[in-house]
Design brief:
The protein has about 375 residues and is α+β, with helices and mostly antiparallel strands. It folds into two domains: about 130 residues, Aminopeptidase; about 150 residues, 3-Layer(aba) Sandwich (Aminopeptidase), CATH 3.40.630. It has 13 helices and 15 strands. Strands 1, 2, 3, 4, 5, 6, 9 and 15 form an eight-stranded mixed β-sheet that branches. Strands 8-10-11-12-13-7-14 form a seven-stranded mixed β-sheet, with helices on both faces. β10 and β11 form a beta hairpin. The longest helix has 18 residues.
Amino acid sequence: MSQTIRRVEETDYAALTRLQDAVWFPLRSENSWHWLINQNPDQGDYPGGYVYQSPDTGEILGFIGVTRLGFKRAGEDLFANTGHTMIALPDATGAGFRLAATMIRKTEGFAAFTLNNNAMAARVHSALRAKPIHETTSNQSASWITNRMQFYRAGIGRRIHSATKYKLARLTGERMNKWRDLPEDFSTQPNVQRVKDPMKKDDAREEFAHRLAAEDFITVRRDHTRLSWRLSDPELKAPHLMWSFDRGNGVEGWLIAMITKESEISAPALTIVDLISLSASTNDVLPSLVRTAIDAARAMRMTRLNLPHFSPETERALNPLLESARIRTSHMHSYVKAIDLSHDELEKSWRHTPWDGDYFFALRQPPIR
């Protein structure tokens, strides 16, 4: 009997964690699955994902997560679905394709998309006729080396573990790492202030979110309700870092970063998960925020600062800084299937950042120190 696809249920959460462990994905507890699916203010009754299940044994052999997100354009409410955590065990032939097709077919909103695909998932979305969000940047990421000694040492470690097919790394478990904490008021650029408690409601940041939502561009909602939900993941090992840009006339932009690891054996890095400004301020605000984050990563003794996803608009604003960055070009990691809007319209009007996808919850974090 063939396998069946159905919506994920809360009783499946333990099985989803076992799937993650089988493919070395960062593990999410049942409590964290509940946070992601059941507490998302935009999810409603919409399926939080789909499982690929054997009707004979009941075993879950595959999964794709579906996070429904609210967006704004000129004050109008919009919605879209981002896929994440696509897993198919070796025995589940064709599961990835069928799961992704199910997500796209059942999406209600302006698009179904993914920003953080590995190479295998990218081939699946391409086969389903999804398109790169932007041909010029959808296969790129940027990083700035902030601790060269640690960077080179990590490179040697990667080569050793690659030679042993990572068996030793899996046996010895997660590598423990330390970093320096930042002063509460750390900032190195004019008009950039560190936000001491991003979870606390703040009138200036709420006004910025309101002004951003009123612009004639598609932006994911950043009001306090949604921001505080995103920052409250029970799986977090270290709190997010946040800086805002304010010249005295109100907040014009902000940057949110988190401490991450590429793999179980890699050294920690600081990764930007949101970088946004009012459209008229982009060229002033974004470089100042990123320069502050580079200095912060250096002060914390992080290996590097990562920017895993960026739009052509962000690329233009950061052009001088990107000259000193390591630009990694790989497979197309961000795909979109336009539904209620055309692809051309999305290319022109969607101001997307890593915050629009699963980067705020799917990145690997270091163990507690």
